[in-house]
């Protein structure tokens, strides 16, 4: 008997779910409008004006087509293509993120190598880590002044903790035996760090990096809603102010897709550094 | 004249967790000759691994010293190769890379081709050839991993090879194969070997001399038993040698009874705690002229 592979069957099921989901969504929208009777809420908010309604998927797809066929147009400060907006967001995320990695990974390495440092820094990390990154925003705006730099700072501060904690933990947890292998081979501290500790701790470090990029992408949307000007977060907020819900739904989907791609990149890296014991 | 490897008045104490001190062993004093294969036998917890870690330079003793080839052991060195109990291969490297890791450390001036060739040669020596050497340790069986670990140690030509229960985790069949391989390589390279084991038969098969440790705390290396069975030895033939059961019984007696009776006696302060040499040779009292077995010589001399 012919048997489809597991992946193929799963993919088929995904497509079916997508199509069914879209059909239900499409069917639900006109039904709501055709019902004629207005709910109490709609009466209160001005009678269910059709232009502010939730769009059916066909409209979103049409919008997506229109936007994605010319993603980089630039017609003034309030009208830029989705590609440009996402580009700004990615630029901010990556800048803040790599600055954080540049500090968190070497610093985490040092903390992880010394039990005293690990214990000494731990209370600070534990207090700073649960602070919502957006809570830093007013302080950042006041101290840094520039809203662009403040957004990058917020990304920096939110992505530093998982990388710092995971690096320190991963380095501290490297098996004594592997260190002893390095010692019996007379490797110096630098070579031990690069040829034994780093590869041994890499899976934990990359897991931290993956968590960080996820958080950074979550935070950038909120941060850009606050600072405004450019970026996908600002775009969502701006379209909401224009009551263009089709664009809002479309950009929500784009946020998801970009987030997924960023995560997939680190998933790939993670697979490369993971080892089985 | 000092032996090649001289362990002098070695004492190790650890904090016992309740404010006091735990003396693992005190003033332990013994020697190992160049090219000798010495096995140390003793109950769990008597301090065998502690001694080995000190010999490797991975741990410092509370007092006393280890002198190898006229030089005091201070810290780990490429001259002392270690095969750890749990193999300690680096799991992110392939089998070949695990061995080249060691070779590169020993010969930093070699080219990559030279290093690879040398490593491949030693892997072949322990029976690992072809595709296997490009697999990760996690894709190897326990016995294969152990062989990689042995190849890594041998490829560096250490002056002293330290083996901590190297076959502990292996099944009897694999154990036998690797013991044979170890004997073969040792025969070719005239390596000085110091090995820990729990297995009496393994000890008799491999050793020139067996050191017997009493139970801890205050453990002592109480006896040094010469294995008066000529080489080359094979698993099936040694059991027929007249000395085999005499030696084996002596070892079983020691581990079963005397290791307990002799335990826990604090050493006389300042006096070296050296083992008593025991030589069991039933063939020497054998005056049957028809016996044409080769004359036995003392293995240490
Ligand atoms: N770092 C340490 N701190 C405190 N006590 C220790 C330490 N290392 C070893 N010991 C103690 O020293 C004693 C000897 O330990 P060791 O590991 O040398 O035993 P062993 O003879 O190798 O035993 P086994 O055959 O089970 O491996 C044990 O009682 C152990 O609890
Ligand atoms: Mg041990």
In brief, what are we looking at here?
The complex is a heterodimer of chains A (about 280) and B (about 300). Chain A has about 280 residues and is an all-alpha fold. Chain A has eleven helices and no strands.
Question: Which tags fit this structure?
Answer:
heterodimer; A: 277 residues; mainly alpha; MetI-like fold; 2 domains; 77% helix; globular; B: 301 residues; alpha/beta; Rossmann fold; seven-stranded mixed β-sheet; four-stranded antiparallel β-sheet; 8 helices; 11 strands; disordered C terminus; binds adenosine-5'-triphosphate; binds magnesium ion; cell membrane (chain A); ion transport (chain A); membrane (chain A)
CATH-level-2 architecture of chain B:
3-Layer(aba) Sandwich
Radius of gyration of chain B: 20 Å
Q: Outline of chain B, from the CA principal axes?
A: globular
Mean pLDDT of chain B equals 87
The CATH class of chain B turns out to be Alpha Beta
Structural class, from secondary structure content of chain A?
Answer: mainly alpha
N-C termini distance of chain B = 13 Å
The CATH architecture designation of the largest domain in chain A is: Orthogonal Bundle
Quick one: how many beta strands of chain B? Answer: 11
Describe the largest sheet of chain B. 7 strands, mixed
Strand/helix succession of chain B: EEEHEEEHHHEHEHEEHHE
- Give the largest chain-chain interface (CB within 8 Å): A-B, 18 and 24 residues
Helix segment tally of chain A? 11
Number of strands of chain A: 0
- Count every helix of chain B, treating DSSP H or I runs of 4 or more residues as helices: 8
Oligomer: heterodimer
User: Using only CA atoms, what is the Rg of chain A?
Assistant: 24 Å
N-to-C order of helices and strands of chain A: HHHHHHHHHHH
CATH class of the largest domain in chain A: Mainly Alpha
Form type of chain A = globular
Main location (chain A): membrane
Keywords (chain A): Cell inner membrane, Cell membrane, Ion transport, Membrane, Transmembrane, Transmembrane helix, Transport
Membrane topology (chain A): Multi-pass membrane protein
Organism (chain A): Loktanella gaetbuli
